[in-house]
Amino acid sequence: MKRLLTTAAIFATVALTAAGCGGSGGKSDSKTFEFWSFTNINQKGDVDVYTKAHPDVHVKLTEVGSTTETAQALTTALAGGKVPDLVLIQADDLPKFMQSPDNFVDLTTMGAGDIKGNYLDWVMAQSTTQDNKIIGVPTDVGGLAVAYRTDLFKAAGLPTDREEVAKLWPTWDDFINVGKTYVQKTGKPFVDNTPTSVFFQAVNQGSERYYSADRKLDYGNAQVKAAFDLTLKAFSAGISAKQGSFSTGWTAAMKKGDYAVVCSPSWMLSQMKTNAPETNGKWDIATIPGGSGNWGGSFLAIPKRAKNPKAAWNYISEMQSPKGQLDHFLMQGSLPTTPSVYTDPQLVGRTDPFFSNAPIGKIYTQSVLGIKPFYFGPQDGPIGTEFLNTLTSVEQGKVEPAKAWDTALTNVKNAIRG
Q1: Which alpha helices (H) appear in 278-400, and where do they start and end?
Q2: Bridging pattern class, strands 86-90 and 32-38
Q3: Which listed CATH number (3.40.190.10, 3.40.50.300, 3.40.309.10, 3.30.450.20) goes with 144-293+358-415?
Q4: How far apart are CA 109 and CA 70, in angstroms?
């Protein structure tokens, strides 16, 4: 599950990493385990469900901080501190931990080999080493779609029915053209911004991102360049409100209707509802240009020095089963990684009144089927950040579009020193 980076939770991290440097130690207790998670994603809900079903089990849940802070705390713990029994790792952070798989329990020794077929193959590929060790079990994915304001579309003379809207933009070029029409009719921006709503969606739709299939750095490849050029084209078309995702300006503009479209992965819906509750019922959801793609997701892993790995595995195997993931979706909206539930009437029939009763389960699960696996490398996070930062600088008038690609490549090279 992708989460917004937050201010450093210094005290939480210090408390976790000051526990010493001698390993976990102590006697194992199969009925108790320590679980490190992110803030603001309500893992407590899952823990409560589990402990209610297993009243003899005690779970010590610690919400460390943001996704990045949790990864930093884990890195410190793995270097010699007290590790948790179970840890949630964001997909973007997983590759750097995959470089040292011996820091984690190979989950095939716990039974993961018997259940790996329950999950989307391209997701499992992210947590599987070249010698077929499984380091993490996926908890969710972030399918792609477009959230749009029906009232603003109607005022612009555009269709509002989600199927008709999806037909407007089978391709990203069509999406840009719809944006031009909207701006011409209303005089207002169409999309919140282009770096996130165009580049970071399009770059996640290909068969290759910043690494080649043989796991070598290749961030200047044709697919990344095409997504980058597409974003510059969208910006030059004058359809962007230039409101950086998750910023205070983005939230304020969302409330005021200063843009009509947000390209929204499934996990972003809850943030939209929280940030702009007064727009309830004014949004709907349509298929993303290109039809599929993913941004986000998380994995549960067990550090090698965990004191209670069996208790942690029992939690994973139950809560991340197809039924467990379906229940989690119905309770909290996180998109399952288990395709066997994608035709379940409860998922297919799940609608959201905030988004005009859009069938969010059906729309978002369709977007993650048929995705071709591509390698996530240890530098994926920094590389993506530099591309986004450069494109944001273009929107802010700090970098000329004609110089943007070369600037981005230079910034990436400097960031990763390679």
Answers
A1: 309-319, 322-332, 345-348, 360-368, 380-395
A2: parallel
A3: 3.40.190.10
A4: 25
Q: What's the farthest any 2 CA atoms get from each other in the chain? A: 69
What does the DSSP assignment read for 155-219?
A: HTT---SHHHHHHH-SSHHHHHHHHHHHHHHHSS-SBS-SIIIIIHHHTTSSS-SSB-TTS-B-T
State the DSSP H helix or E strand holding residue 274, giving kind and residue range, or none if neither.
helix 268-275
Nearest by Cα to 37 from 263, 418, 400, 319: 319
CA 208 to CA 383: how far, in whole Å? 14
Separation between Cα atoms, residue 119 and residue 320, nearest integer Å: 10
How many angstroms separate the CA atoms of 199 and 384, rounded? 10
Task: For the chain of 418 residues, list the mean pLDDT of each consecutive stretch of 10.
Answer: 40 38 45 91 89 95 94 95 96 94 97 96 94 97 97 98 98 98 98 97 91 93 97 98 96 97 95 95 97 94 96 97 96 94 97 97 93 87 95 97 98 90
> 408-411 contacts: CB < 8 A, separation 24 or more?
408/228, 409/219, 409/220, 411/386
- Tokens 């010699």 found at: 80
CA quadruple 368, 374, 378, 383: dihedral sign:
negative
Sign of CA dihedral 166, 202, 361, 128: positive
Q: Please, which residues have CB within 8 angstroms of residue 329's CB and are 6 or more apart in sequence?
A: 335, 336, 341, 347, 350, 361
The residue among 131, 25, 101, 109 whose CA lies nearest residue 299 is: 101
Do 32-142+296-341 and 144-293+358-415 fold alike per CATH?
A: yes
Global pTM? 0.89
For 32-142+296-341, CATH number out of 3.40.640.10, 3.40.190.10, 3.90.550.10, 3.40.47.10 equals 3.40.190.10
The CA distance from 145 to 91, in Å, is 19
226 vs 185: CA distance, rounded Å = 29
Q: How many CB atoms lie within 10 A of CB 226?
A: 14
Q: Which of 214, 374, 205 is nearest to 295 (CA)?
A: 205
Please state, in angstroms and rounded to a whole number, the distance separating the CA atoms of residues 143 and 294: 4
Distance CA 188, CA 385 (A): 28
